[in-house]
Design goal:
By secondary structure, the chain is mainly β. It has no helices and nine strands. It starts with 7 loop residues before the first strand and ends in a 9-residue tail after the last strand.
């Protein structure tokens, strides 16, 4: 996936189009992400023990990863990302792969 947990993203389609938020949870097998405060749905829940309330609960639902774009920390706009290898190596001796912003060509992963 082109985004990770903790990234700032902008929604590009759907009812929350144009809104920004931080990724709370990433679900790579389903290719979906949960964004804090966005894609709020209501669920009618039965009581499930002392810590779980009953009633109509508002919660964040998952959104498909293709419907969000990463917000570049340097240029502060939603942009496409690419991956490139750096000259430095990791612990196993392989070249380090990082994401970069295609708009301003800045490295996103430090």
């Amino acid at each position: 996936m082109h985004i990770k947990t903790g990234d700032q993203v902008q929604v590009i389609t759907g009812k929350d189009k144009g809104k920004r938020g931080k990724i709370k949870e990433s679900l790579p097998k389903a290719n979906r992400v949960v964004i804090e405060g966005l894609n709020i749905v209501k669920r009618h829940m039965k009581p499930r023990g002392p810590g779980k309330p009953s009633g109509i609960i508002e919660m964040e639902a998952a959104i498909h990863a293709s419907n969000v774009m990463l917000v570049c920390p340097q240029c502060d706009r939603a942009s496409r990302t690419g991956k490139r290898f750096l000259e430095e190596t990791d612990q196993q001796g392989r070249l380090r792969k990082v994401r970069f912003c295609k708009a301003c060509n800045a490295t996103i992963d430090e």
